[in-house]
Amino acid sequence: MEAEQEYTECEDFIAERYELIKEKLNELCDAADTGDDRYDKYFGTEFAFVRYLTTVFDRVGDKNVSGTEYKEINKKLYEDILPGNYDSSYCNPGYATNIFGMDIGRILSATAYEMRCAIPYVFEGQMQRLLMRAELLVELYGSVCDLASDGDEALAGSLKDIIYWYVSDYYETEQEYRVSELVKGEQLPLDILDEYDPGDTSYLYKYGEYITDNEIKTAEYLAAQPEEKIAKIADTFSEGYRIGFEVTRKDLSKKKTVNIRYPIGFERVIKKTISNFEKMGLTPVIYRAGSSFFRRQNVQKVGYFGANPNKQYDCDHSKDEALFLDSQLLTRKLECLKASFEKYKEEAYVHAGPAVMEIFGEEPFVPAENESAYKLSKQQQTLFVKGTSKAGMITNEYIKGEERSFTIMAFPSPAIGDIFTEVFDETLEINTLDYYLYRNMQQIIIDELDKAKYVHVLGQNGNRTDININLIDIDDPDSQTKFENCVADVNIPVGEVFTSPVLKGTTGLLHVSEVFLDELKYRDLAITVTDGFVTDYSLANYDSEEKNKEYFKENVLYNHETLPMGEFAIGTNTRAYAMGRKMGIAGRLPILIAEKTGPHFAFGDTCYSHAEDVKVYNPDGKEIMARDNEVSICRKDSPDKAYFNCHTDVTLPYDEIGLIETVKENGERTAIIKGGRFVLPGLEELNIYIDKVLEEK
Fold first, then answer.
1. Which residues touch 463 (CB under 8 Å, ≥6 apart)?
2. What's the 3-state SS for 474-489?
3. DSSP reduced 3-state for 436
4. pLDDT of 296
């Protein structure tokens, strides 16, 4: 009873502050007066935006809001950051710094970004998270009024201090919200799914995410499909999740919740998926792919998500932490994360992991270089790496890697063009290929790989790849294996065999003419590997070598100085490869499918990260022994050195592969792929689609 009373008093206090801040916003919107027209215009714009957020907050709780009004709200919330308007938006660091100078311009641009991070809370009814951002804006305005005449240096110092303490003060609140979302989810998406009407797409706007024709067309397309097709998608999705627990011999019966991540528009499929999971005894946990000062996010979204209004906007603000990140703040962040998990430890213990639905098909994206955007200093890069590692360890302590699993599946978005329905149907066929056919063919490859000391990969047709992949030794070939036979379970679609390479001796050059990693494009990418670690890299995205290296370090190395090769795999899904080439969408396939269309090499953690001690078996009953490498084994003595919390796949297409051969201890060599085709007896089926591509050329 006492706790309930405290909670009610806290709610009342927040509601009282909320009413006061609304009054203040109304007062300041048309009367911002700092003594400097530049600041008056900035704060007038931002006050008006936040005031509109409060108006929407008060309005969306009304059941009588029409679909047309929701659509108008959606347009108004996102219009200033759309590509056509971004050049004159304060959210664009380049625009802001042209007006206010580099230091203050960056701060004010980051602040404008943080205000727009409050959009989700308006629709979720989270008054406190909207309130705290509104109060931050008013406090910054007060500082400008007091110090604008004292010079930029004094003003910038004051603004930085305000944001620093804002972040410090609210870390506890935000981390608690975040952990609650992770293990309990949000109510809004459940309400929308519960009220889902396939005949009315206006529900899409109730999420508060940016909505385009792509989301509407997806929802309309799925609503028109026969029930059997929807069931086929949902059944493959949920069954892959269940099999993931089965093949790793993890006890699903101990779990009570599953995180479902999906693109908006897939509600009909997700409703059926939820029904399937409930039959397994799992309750859905659904949360948004949000972003703010407290939760770093780039182009890739983790959670449910709508359209991305502007990927450049995301990239420009992906390093806003540079404004405040230091060791003291990092320590506080991690302490708050630990305390939050402790509060929700019971819910975390019964959480089974994510089931992820992805989409693909948008134009490849290469971010423009924005010199005005924040960048982490060398010291901050080190702190970022340390923080990511520590946060991963804390999360794994409560949602244990050795007890959880996942599944991932992808379908096209209408952004892929007029061939959307054709690609969708072909992707469905690829996602439901014959499990047993591929299992047996992949076993032929594994049987040959198990005899090898190392694998040699050589490029062709201009590809300069020439690398040796060192493999683990096994003591008992009758009961042990070096490679996992990956069929359609956690990683849909079917189609790869993979291992964790022995780092020492894994040396050479990896090269690919063009590749897309996490929606970002890389041209003429070359990575030098020495004893399993990246020792050099180059690409041709920008004219400047420095910019190219910075791009790779930020987006592949995740600010580490180097990363080990955590995975080597041979993809076998030649039908997916043929789809990409035939339909001209190879560059738009997600890594989930693309990694099955040729050999690939992943940098970062192994595929068994945080679960190396869990015994894993192939369908033939053999135990997969290559679950560790020389880095991950450090977990036993120095766990902070064992993980990087990243894993990025680089795939080479079949037509750029001259040779993949095994090399035995005695020097004997056996080709698996030669001239872009599989050559081992028993793999003829895999060449059918490769040959079709060659014929069409």
1. 511, 512, 513, 652, 656, 657, 658
2. CCCCCCEECCEEECCC
3. helix
4. 75
Cα 167 to Cα 43, 183, 319, 440, 634: the distances in Å are: 20, 23, 15, 54, 33
Tell whether the model's pLDDT for residue 4 goes beyond 70: no
3-state class (DSSP) for residue 358:
strand
What letter does residue 676 receive in the DSSP assignment? Answer: T
Helix axes 227-247, 420-431, angle to 10 degrees: 40
Q: What region does 101 belong to: left with phi over 0, alpha with psi -120 to 50, or beta?
A: left
Which residue blocks in 527-650 are alpha helix, DSSP H?
A: 545-555, 574-582, 591-594
CB 286 within 8 A of CB 190: yes
| Alpha-carbon torsion (522, 510, 487, 557), positive or negative | negative
Strand spans (E) along 188-333: 257-261, 283-285
Task: Determine which helix (DSSP H) or strand (DSSP E) holds 303, and give its type and residue range.
Answer: none
For 337-396, how does the pLDDT look when each residue is reduced to its tens digit (9 = 90+)? 999 999 999 999 999 999 999 999 988 787 888 999 999 998 998 999 889 889 989 999
Quick check: 309 and 268 in contact, CB under 8 A?
A: no
pLDDT digits (tens, 9 = 90+) for 291-317: 899 987 665 688 999 999 999 999 999
Cα separation of 623 and 618, whole Å? 6
* Rounded Cα gap, residues 468 and 489, in angstroms: 29
Q: Distance between CA 378 and CA 339 in Å, rounded?
A: 29
**Alpha carbons 635 and 641: distance in angstroms, whole number:** 7
Are 672 and 663 contacting, i.e. CB atoms less than 8 angstroms apart? no
Six-digit token string for 458: 């050589």
Query: pTM for the whole thing?
Result: 0.89
**Complete DSSP assignment for 387-417:** HHHHHHHHHHHHS-GGG---EEEEEE-GGG-
Among residues 552, 116, 130, the alpha carbon closest in space to that of 310 is found at 116
Cα R_g (the chain), whole angstroms:
26
Token output for 552 = 């790779």
